[in-house]
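TICKET #2291
ISSUE: user wants both folds in one file
ATTACHMENT 1:
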Amino acid sequence: MPSATRSRRRRLLLASWGFALCGLACDSGPPPPSILLVTIDTLRRDHVGVYGDERALTPNLDALAAEGLVHEHAYTTMPTTGPAHLSAMTGYYPSQHGARRNGEPLPQRFRERELAFQLGRNGYATAAFVTAGLLANHVVGLRGFEVYDAPKRILRPGDDAVSDALAWLAVEKRRPILLWVHLYDPHAPYGTADEKGRSFPIDESKYGFVDTDFYADPARRREIETRYARGVRSSDLALGRLLEGARAALGPSLFVVVTSDHGETLSERIDERGFGYDHGKYLDREEVEIPLVVVGPGIAAGRSLGAVSLRDVYTTLLAASGIGDPRAADEGRRDLRRRDDSRRVVRIERRLFRSRVPDSVRDHAAAASDGERLVIVAEDGTEGGSASNGATAPADLLAEARAPLAASDDAAPFEIPRETRDSLRDLGYVE
């Protein structure tokens, strides 16, 4: 038989196998959905309309929430930007993934656990567009995204990141996609993009352990909180444009998760502690409660009352992609696509400090919640903090709150590069 004939038959045979395999794949169900993950930095849950706010700050998020599942009792893993985002990307608490301060990257040994890495090797096109330098890939150590776009300077407006993300969608023709967009607009310094740009570096007397004399006038407190609200509104406008563009490009089967990395203390604690307009040092409700909305194919609109964690985002996106997460049950994580009102305890950790902090901070070493009660424990494991209210906590709540205290802090600290330290200092992250 001539070689050309043999070659032609071989090609036909391979083609027939290919069609057979395609048929098997088609019988296995619909293709996996494209995924959009949006994290709105420093967004307090009580500033979102679907969670009870009446100022119409978040009409786009509220409209999205009406389509899907709203989690009433969602919590961050740590009210600090870098570690919290790494929890969403790995399913680990910070004491497990090892990055317990801003500027500390995810250890290399967890690369294959990364959400983007797993989706990428299963056929997803992956891209991240973040709005703060403290989430640049070389800072947080996320290596799984094919495209990772971060500002060259400290910050950029959320609307700019949305423009870049939609431009990527316009030229990226592979499907499905994983797209993560981070919006920093509510974060300090508060206000519009122009107001932020005129407020660097952050004045330490106005954010964190503040000059209480400066905030003695209630009108001054209202002024800065109005600026925070303007940042929330800016993030929602960016979200609305992103949702419109992504749905136009990807169709109605798009799977969407919108959440926050943590909340924010405003004026609640100024008179009590001299602390306001910041996050990360304490574990009060306004810092650890977050909004969390899940929308996508097969998800019934409604509200889920069970306590959930930011780390459950990891489980949910793996499940939505069809990859699955066989470790979820053993590691105590849930699929956020399903309503679950049963009692469950989740953990919240405080970031690791390398320098002296006030005694009041020592009473907020770790926390746990079941959605109804928030228990805070001090460094010695005893109950403490304003949210504990003196009553004895259930044993499982206390055990979960104490769990991260066993993590050793004696290891040699990661040396944060000077450039990263300077950027963090400009953003008010001073320890």
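ATTACHMENT 2:
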Amino acid sequence: METLLDRRQMVAAYWLGKVDALSKFEIEKTGAGVALNFRDLLVDQGLVLAESTKYTYQVRGPRYKSQKQTVLRPEIRIDREMLSAAIEQGTDTPIEISIWPHRRVSNPEPVKIYFDWSPSRDQFTVRRISRG
């Protein structure tokens, strides 16, 4: 049985190490804006230490691009000011959040999360996820 578990860990480490390994994206309203929460499968499976991983992100809109910022946990908080700037022109284009996971072993291409935002909404839905 232990051999199967070891093999499972080796296969997971190999394949997850080739991609961003981020999943289960959820957006929730906060008092100051929104929080994008996600899972890091490499951390969840114990294949890398949480302390050795950080996440750089950037928010974009049709005519807006924020500075890149870095967080140490799989949670990104975006304030209303940044959200408003991203949809300033009032187009129907969703807000894009690009996330670059930084690890000691690899630094994959970013994953991009697209969602609609309105200050009057209580619920948010991920419209699309783009990888690589």
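RESOLUTION: both attachments delivered.
EXTRA DETAIL ON ATTACHMENT 2: The helical segments are 2-16, 41-44, 80-86.
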